[in-house]
Amino acid sequence: MTESETIAYDVVVLGAGPVGENVADRTRAAGLTTAVVESELIGGECSYWACMPSKALLRPVIARADARRLPGLRQAVQGPLDADAVFARRNWFTGDWTDDGQADWLAGIGADLYRGHGRLAGPRTVTVGDRTLTARHAVVVSTGTRAVLPPLPGLAEVRPWTSREATSSQTVPGRLVVVGGGVVATEMATAYQALGSRVTVLVRGKGLLNRMEPFAGELVAEALTEAGADVRTGTSVESVTRADGTVTVVTGAGDRIEADEILFATGRAPRTDDIGLDTIGLEPGSWLTVDDSLRVTGTDWLYATGDVNHRALLTHQGKYQARIAGAAIAARAAGTLLDGADPWSAHAATADHETVPQVVFADPEAAAVGLSLAEAEQAGYRVRAVDVDMSSVSGAGLYGEGYKGRARMVVDLEEEILRGVTFVGAGVGELIHSATIAVAGRVPVSRLWHAVPSYPTLSEVWLRLLEAFRDN
Fold first, then answer.
1. Which residues contact residue 62 at a Cβ distance below 8 angstroms, ignoring those fewer than 6 apart?
2. What is the pLDDT of residue 424?
3. pLDDT of 345
4. Among 42, 87, 297, 416, fewest CB within 10 Å belongs to which?
């Protein structure tokens, strides 16, 4: 093979994160020749700078918090966390930022890997360095997103953290300012406060986790405050400077905060600015609009999966989309998929609309699926929210003293199905899939009575929610 050679494939995938990997897995399983192009590490953001390292940092934090609520155990865990050991375990989860294992996996499914920056060069054509790859059936963009920094003068000289630096740091800053109130901000504030930083969280809006029910952010903020963090809402950042290793932040209220590091967790932008979108008439740097088969609007060969289509910036949803896209590409290649296919088939990403689940691994955990009460009302549904104090559930008592949490289900009063469910409390992340099945499956409330929760587990919250709906 010469460097200038043009190589033809059935499918070319731009991006080898978990989403691109899953696209390749499905297209290869269907017998389609597949090339995967990656400019960084195979496994992408999730494996090295997001899901895996962040949860590895948080697991000891949550385990210690749970232990401290249990008489007979709390006395054994009163000391500080061993930050070096936590970081070492985190490093193991990332493979020390090497991707040999992931490369072997791609080779094992029969996909060809091209390392380098891939760019579209017209319809069904991708260049990687001096090589040109052509796609008989589809090009799939799975390039993900990057962190967005605010347009503050001199910010580059401050060398601020983004999610990448926060999840890969090998040291614990003595003082850390976290700007933002979303998932990254909340989880990293939780982790570094527990690891020994003095954390200040600056939130422009009214509270944390504003895409969930308001009580979720309130309970997490309360717990962060009790742990020693300073959480300030309604606070903007006017300037940031660094001198002699110290970061100075000036807020909109004129307050000055000094820190050793500052993390900006203030949004994401699609990594589509330099992938050749202009060669096919699309705007560089734009989000890519897709139909439910993940095909980009106005094309019959270009697909976009994961963060770049802006439907749900979550790894599990991206992998779900990848499975849908792979099945749709294979079916179209075989001539067996017609537009207007069954919306609940393997070729339609129906769950991206109103049934997206998410877990925030804070202390307490927050988990939600579907619509919040406000979102359901805004969508025009006639709904009622049913709330239960999680501490009333028998299983909560097993988590120790002072359990704090809350559960809500949003009931569609006309169809008597659930439009959304939210849980906050220790251990609730493991409850969310049952809620996802109820919401995505449109399970009638009357039938949920026959899904009997095991005693004594946190799942008994379902019985308490149903009783509250019946009795009020």
1. 361, 363, 365, 426
2. 98
3. 84
4. 297
Please give the full DSSP string across 31-87, using - where no structure is assigned.
T--EEEEESS-TTHHHHHHSHHHHHHHHHHHHHHHHHHTSTTTGGGG-S---HHHHH
Domains, the chain, in order of start with CATH, read 6-43+99-146+269-351 (3.50.50.60), 155-266 (3.50.50.60), 364-471 (3.30.390.30)
CB 304 within 8 A of CB 290: yes
Rg (CA), the chain: 24
> Given this model, what pLDDT does residue 472 score?
83
Q: Note the pTM of the prediction, 2 decimals.
A: 0.95
pLDDT along the chain (472 residues), means of 10: 78 98 98 98 97 98 95 92 98 97 97 98 97 98 97 95 98 98 98 98 97 97 97 97 96 97 97 97 97 96 98 96 96 85 82 94 98 98 98 93 96 98 97 97 97 96 97 88
Strands of the 246-251 sheet, one edge to the other = 237-243, 246-251, 256-259
Q: Which of 15, 34, 12, 316 is nearest to 144 (CA)?
A: 15
Q: How many angstroms from the chain centroid is the CA of residue 109? A: 26
- Contact indicator for 149, 158 with CB cutoff of 8 Å: no
Task: In whole angstroms, give the CA distance from residue 287 to residue 146.
Answer: 12
Measured CA to CA, the distance from residue 163 to residue 179 in angstroms comes to 11
100: three-class secondary structure by DSSP: helix
- Nearest partner of 396 among 407, 385, 387, judged by Cα: 407
**Angle (nearest 5°) at CA 180 between 178 and 185:** 65
Q: Annotated binding residues for FAD, as ranges? A: 55, 118, 307
Binding residues for NAD(+): 180-187, 267
Q: Which phi and psi angles does 457 have, rounded to 5°?
A: -125, 165
Q: Which two tokens stand for residue 200?
A: 């200040």
Distance of alpha carbon 191 from alpha carbon 61, whole angstroms: 6
Quote the tokens at residue 298: 């106005």
Give the whole-angstrom CA distance, residue 123 versus residue 276.
10
Predicted confidence at residue 24, as pLDDT, reads 98
The tokens describing 91, both together, are 């490093």
Q: Which residues are annotated as a binding site?
A: 55, 118, 180-187, 267, 307
